[in-house]
Design goal:
- The protein is an all-beta fold.
- It has one domain: Jelly Rolls (Sandwich).
- It is about 0% helix and about 45% strand.
- It contains no helices and 11 strands.
- A 6-stranded antiparallel sheet has the order 1-2-3-10-5-8, with no helix packed on it. Strands 7-6-9 form a 3-stranded antiparallel sheet, with no helix packed on it. Strands 4-11 form a two-stranded antiparallel ribbon.
- The two termini are about 20 Å apart.
């Protein structure tokens, strides 16, 4: 989702370039940025080949549907429950998001996600190559009507 050149959370240094040092981080209590799809992003370490963030969607939240211009994503669900809609060409599916599951979003896939239940949906996203910036996500038609809880 959102990761700007080398920014890290916690004890990691915030700089404009990727570091060759080891980086360790914990998600910040308050989100660093809102993703183009409306989810809360907390920055984690990155390396030249990829970036990592912690993503949160509040209870009742429905993201905006997007596709990416240049990146693939891997998601690992930490807590909460939700659904992930993905479409590539004629292939379309809704996957269940629950703790311990992992999901891929390949370049060019249209996708949207939402929470189910009264708990925040929290997951880790690895983006390859590293997230290039806000212009990466392109709006596509929604599968569900987007909702923000803010």
């Amino acid at each position: 989702m959102i990761h700007t050149g080398g920014q890290h959370v916690g004890t990691a240094e915030r700089s404009g370039t990727a570091s060759t040092d080891f980086a360790s981080a914990s998600p910040a209590e308050v989100h660093d940025v809102l993703a183009p799809d409306g989810s809360e992003i907390r920055l984690l370490p990155q390396v030249p080949g990829g970036s990592m963030v912690h993503c949160t969607l509040p209870p009742g939240g429905v993201s905006l549907a997007v596709t990416h211009r240049t990146v693939d994503e891997l998601w690992y669900i930490l807590s909460g429950a939700g659904e992930l809609w993905r479409r590539q060409g004629q292939r379309e599916e809704v996957a269940v998001l629950m703790p311990g599951t992992a999901h891929s979003i390949r370049l060019g896939t249209h996708f949207q996600f939402r929470t189910i239940g009264d708990e925040h949906l929290r997951f880790v996203i690895v983006t390859t190559p590293p997230w290039p910036g806000m212009d990466e996500a392109v709006r596509v038609p929604d599968h569900w009507s987007p909702r923000s809880t803010e």
